[in-house]
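Ticket #4471: structure output looks truncated?

Reporter: J.K.
Steps to reproduce: submitted the chain below (167 residues) through the standard prediction queue, then opened the result file.
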Amino acid sequence: MSQAANLAALGSNATSNGTISGSVIQVVNATYGTSSSTTSTSFVDTGLTATITPKFSTSKILTLVNAQYQSYPSANSRDTGGAFQLVRNSTGIWSPNSISVYLDIQLSAGVQVNMVNLWSLNYVDSPATTSATTYKLQYYAESGRTFLINQTGTSAPASIILMEIAA
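Returned output as attached by the reporter:
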């Protein structure tokens, strides 16, 4: 069958490369289970990374990220925090406008509970390439704090799933 006949058979949702718009072309999954922490007030790598090579330059990449985190306060702090950022190759493609993660619960004056929480991000990217493309998770801590992922014994590994979606 010719490409024109294939496209006609696929119907109105067919793309010029012979796929159906919105269909999943490929999936890449990676996990990172090593305990990792930072006191940096600038974004640094967490260790969670995955690489995908899109088949078509018109494809979208649906990125699903999960990470369990914990933050430790400085001695005089009541609330603590840090932030995550999603990076494509060396460019931040999703980043919070301000500190995005707060997790200490103030029970009463001066009493804190440090909890392990889950942070998730679903992000659709348009890399416009067929070259290998690496996605990674970065993080930072507020000044005087320690921001930690994958605390040993209390959390599941951080994970990233990359799905190439036909445009």
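Triage note (M.O.): checked the attachment and the full token line is present. The chain has one helix and 13 strands.
Status: closed, working as intended.
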